[in-house]
Amino acid sequence: MLLPAVFFFLIQCSPTQAPVPELRELSLLSVVEQLPPELVNGLAKAPAANGALGLNKDGYFHVRFQISLAANAAYAVYFTEPTAVESVAKSIAYSFTHQKPAGDFEIQVPASLQSFGTPSPADLASGTAFFGSALASTLHLLDQSAWFKSLSQPGKQVIDSQRQSVQRMTDWLKSQSEVLKQADHRAANRLLWDAHCFFGLGVYLEDATSKELGEEFLRAALQRQASAGYFTENEGFDSSYNGVSLLMGLQLYTLLPPGQLKRDLGAALVRAAEWQKSRILPSGEITTAGNTRVFPRGEQFLGAEKNVAWVDTVQAFYWLAILTDSPEAYRGFAEKIRSYYE
Predict the structure, then answer these.
(1) Residue 40 CB: number of other CB atoms within 10 A?
(2) How many helices and strands, by DSSP H and E, does the chain display?
(3) Cys staple from 94: which of 34, 51, 86, 326, with CB 3.0 to 4.6 Å?
(4) First-to-final CA distance of the chain
(5) Which of 247, 207, 221 shows the shortest CA–CA distance to 103?
(6) What pLDDT score was predicted for residue 15?
(7) Cβ(75)–Cβ(139) under 8 Å?
């Protein structure tokens, strides 16, 4: 019986088994400040003069399309650019001019899209949660920035004055939590959006109920991870949405306090990243073969076929290069993907 025991010991100690990287304790701002400048610059999107972003620039549609707000806030603190703060302030103020008394937001579907029907309550709740997540990142980035706190310009005051509106939105989202759980239970990336929204806003507002809901959505997302490592979408894998899950999970990771849930999330993200690597071709292309949602003639959004969310995977790999002690294991993939798609 000695030989099998020795053999088992040798296998367990094999030097070919690379240790699983652990994620470090860094703030959201600390990670953003270490990203490549050209990446931060490229992600920023100029708003219209009134603060509208995305599809809202052609006329207000829904607050969901204000989500590039977070990238603009990252640009502002990264480059310490006061005019960028003013743009972020305008975008936040514009968003809340369309808030309804209950805390939710107006929806004005463009005439060209009305053939797709009326958005469901779940659509509106999810869209608001997307915005809530982006707003949470924005507020935490600014709050963690000593440079931003030193400002006395009008934009900073506008942002600080929106706290009551943020609380009304959060209270409305809390009332929609069961709707979101039902609508998003088969899409891990959406559960992570929800988790980040509730937890991030809860931390900012010191709202214990919102933080608890964020943890609930996070646990639900972790249960949607397959043994192979990917976060499931429609009971299968999707190389596009797994990249989205990675980025959203990493953002949430920076906000969680030390503890078992944070350790569980960190380990899950490393496993998901290893699977994501397996979907990257030597050219840098992210293959969609076998995907459940994003592939040629796959899912559409507002009548257009969805493209691979390669920017999310790029960001996630840069984040992992910063958050682990093995930057070479991730940065090369980020740069290879960028080289293919840019």
Answers:
(1) 19
(2) 16, 2
(3) 51
(4) 59
(5) 207
(6) 42
(7) no
* Contact of 278 with 225, CB cutoff 8 Å: no
pLDDT at residue 247, as a whole number: 98
pLDDT at residue 18 in the model = 54
Q: How far apart are CA 334 and CA 143, in angstroms?
A: 28
Measured CA distances, 153 to 77, 157, 166, 225 (Å): 14, 7, 21, 45
User: For the whole model, what pTM was predicted?
Assistant: 0.93
- Find the length of the chain: 342
The count of other CB atoms within 10 Å of the CB of residue 42 is 15
H/E/C letters for each residue in 237-282? CCHHHHHHHHHHHHHHHHHCCCCHHHHHHHHHHHHHHHHHHCCECC
pLDDT in tens, 9-53: 344 444 444 566 789 999 999 999 999 999 999 999 999 999 999
pLDDT < 50 positions in the chain: 1-17
